[in-house]
């Protein structure tokens, strides 16, 4: 019995400790201190890596938009061609007053190379082939006949031009102006001589073995130009416009003018050639010697006869040019 009473007392005490009395508030728990965040280690800002310059598609003549862009095209290569309308200027031909020259039609072809210096300027050079010349026509009236002597001289040169080309950066159509110098090496020359004779009464043409009477006679002969100079040099200028077809390909057209510093005829060579020719007998079928003598003053541009003197002439050429180009 005492054992049961002791056990009951123990249980009652345990319940009293576990269950608080009604109306009494449980003691408030103490707040835990807030933990401070750990400081982040200081880090240096990452250095900016240099970005490579963008290579943008630019047409020659355009300007850069910013420092991150660079022009793509520095070189331009092209093919050119066109017509030459040439004559010679200076003193009278052969040093004989009254001998006039007329314009001679020719052509020019070549390779053009441009190196871009700025948005508006290029260095221009290349290699070309050009024909120049002139023609003369002299009429002489004799008691029994009238003669018209026509001489057509043509000179062919291999030329190397160099100069500066300025263009107005106006988008896909760019006007340009170029100017510079050129040097040329003679590649060949040709003199075509034609003598038309009209008789007052029918006669036998000189050199005609058939003996047939005729009112007119015609003589033609082709040979090299006596005393043609082997070197040519001068200045040239051109005005035109470029047209872009695509970003890389384009065409151009223009007109130009050139004038040589040198004489196309070497007087020392002319004298030697004239002396050699006068000592030779004309071959069969060629113009007879008497006819050659009558027309020598009009056909020999190197002659200093009739009080003439060594003349100083210069090539003068108007050019019409065009072509296509590729930029890279």
What is the helix tally? Answer: 3
Low-pLDDT residue spans? 21-26, 271-310
Please name the CATH topology.
Answer: Porin
Could you say how many structural domains there are in total? 1
Which word captures the global form? Answer: elongated
Strand order of the largest sheet: 3-5-6-7-8-10-11-12
- What is the CATH architecture term? Beta Barrel
Radius of gyration: 48 Å
N- to C-terminal separation?
A: 120 Å
Question: What is the arithmetic mean of pLDDT?
Answer: 77
Largest sheet: 8 strands, antiparallel, barrel
Structural class: mainly beta
Name of the CATH first level: Mainly Beta
What can be said about this structure in brief?
With 328 residues, this protein is mostly beta strands. The chain is built from 3 helices and 12 strands, in the order αβββββββββββααβ.
């Amino acid at each position: 019995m005492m054992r049961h009473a002791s056990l009951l007392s123990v249980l009652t005490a345990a319940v009293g400790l576990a269950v608080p009395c009604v109306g009494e508030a449980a003691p408030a728990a103490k707040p835990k201190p807030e933990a401070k965040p750990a400081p982040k280690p200081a880090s240096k800002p990452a250095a900016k890596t240099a970005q490579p310059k963008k290579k943008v598609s630019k047409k020659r003549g355009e300007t850069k938009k910013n420092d991150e862009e660079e022009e793509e095209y520095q070189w331009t290569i092209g093919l050119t061609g066109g017509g030459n309308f040439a004559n010679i200027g200076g003193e009278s031909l052969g040093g004989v007053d009254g001998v006039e020259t007329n314009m001679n039609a020719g052509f020019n072809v070549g390779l053009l190379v441009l190196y871009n210096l700025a948005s508006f300027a290029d260095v221009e050079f290349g290699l070309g082939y050009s024909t120049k010349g002139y023609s003369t026509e002299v009429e002489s009236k004799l008691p029994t006949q009238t003669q018209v002597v026509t001489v057509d001289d043509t000179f062919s040169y291999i030329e190397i031009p160099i100069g500066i080309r300025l263009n107005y950066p106006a988008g896909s159509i760019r006007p340009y102006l170029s100017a510079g110098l050129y040097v040329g090496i003679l590649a060949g020359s040709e003199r075509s001589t034609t003598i038309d004779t009209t008789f007052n009464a029918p006669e036998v043409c000189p050199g005609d073995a058939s003996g047939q009477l005729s009112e007119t006679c015609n003589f033609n002969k082709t040979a090299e130009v006596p005393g043609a100079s082997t070197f040519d040099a001068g200045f040239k200028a051109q005005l035109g416009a470029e047209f872009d077809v695509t970003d890389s390909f384009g065409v151009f057209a223009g007109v130009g003018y050139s004038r040589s510093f040198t004489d196309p005829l070497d007087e020392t060579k002319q004298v030697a050639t004239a002396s050699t020719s006068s000592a030779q007998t004309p071959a069969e079928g060629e113009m007879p010697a008497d006819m050659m003598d009558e027309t020598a003053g009009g056909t020999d541009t190197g002659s200093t006869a009739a009080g003439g003197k060594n003349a100083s002439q210069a090539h003068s050429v108007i050019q019409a040019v065009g072509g296509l180009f590729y930029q890279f």
